[in-house]
C-alpha cells in the first residue's frame, strides 16, 4: 500500500506560479512511476504529467509543456509539480498518483495507476 498526500495548492493570479508536492509513504517510493492528473468541475480527470521511477523520463500533456515541470526526490519520497505561467484554464483539483508501470507512454492513462492522493485545489484567477 502507498499513501499519497498532496499539498501546495491555492489561489493564484493568472501568470503566477505554484509548486505542488506529493509525499508518499508505505512501499518503496522508487519502485513507482508518478503522475499528476487534474479534474475541473464538470470535466473528466485528465493527464497532466508523469515521471519514471528514476526521474529520467517525463511526459507532459501539450497544454502544459514549457510551463509545468515534474520532478521527484526519491530520498524524500516526494514528487513535485512546478507550475509557471498559470492560466485560468489550469483551475482544477490536482491529484498525484503512483503506478507500478515504472516507465512508458502508458503512464498517460489513469488506469495504470495503483494509488491516488485525495487532491489539492488549484484556482487561477483572471
| Biggest pleated-sheet summary | 7 strands, mixed
Q: Would you identify the regions where 5 or more consecutive residues have pLDDT less than 50?
A: none
| Structural class by secondary-structure content | mainly beta
Q: Tell me the radius of gyration.
A: 13 Å
Task: Outline the secondary-structure elements.
Blueprint (H helix, E strand, L loop, with lengths): L1 E6 L2 E4 L4 E9 L6 E7 L6 E6 L6 E3 L7 E6 L4 E6 L8 E8 L15 E2 L3 E6 L1
Parallel strand pairs: 2-11
Antiparallel strand pairs: 1-3, 3-8, 4-5, 4-9, 5-6, 7-8, 9-10, 9-11
Describe the 3D structure:
The chain is an all-beta fold and 126 residues long. It is built from no helices and eleven strands. Strands 2, 4, 5, 6, 9, 10 and 11 form a seven-stranded mixed sheet that branches. The protein has a four-stranded antiparallel sheet with strand order 1-3-8-7, with no helix packed on it. Strand 4 (33-39) and strand 5 (46-51) form a beta hairpin. The model has no long low-confidence stretch (mean pLDDT 95).
Structure characteristics:
126 residues; seven-stranded mixed β-sheet
Amino acid at each position: 500500500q502507498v499513501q499519497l498526500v498532496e499539498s501546495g495548492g491555492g489561489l493564484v493570479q493568472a501568470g503566477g506560479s505554484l509548486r505542488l508536492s506529493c509525499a508518499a509513504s508505505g512501499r518503496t517510493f522508487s519502485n513507482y512511476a508518478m503522475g499528476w492528473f487534474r479534474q475541473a468541475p464538470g470535466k473528466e480527470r485528465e493527464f497532466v504529467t508523469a515521471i519514471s521511477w528514476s526521474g529520467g523520463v517525463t511526459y507532459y500533456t501539450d497544454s502544459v509543456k514549457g510551463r509545468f515541470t515534474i520532478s521527484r526526490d526519491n530520498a524524500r519520497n516526494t514528487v513535485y509539480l512546478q507550475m509557471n505561467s498559470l492560466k485560468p484554464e489550469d483551475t482544477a483539483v490536482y491529484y498525484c498518483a503512483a503506478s507500478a508501470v515504472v516507465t512508458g507512454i502508458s503512464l498517460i492513462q489513469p488506469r495504470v495507476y495503483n494509488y491516488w492522493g485525495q487532491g489539492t485545489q488549484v484556482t487561477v484567477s483572471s
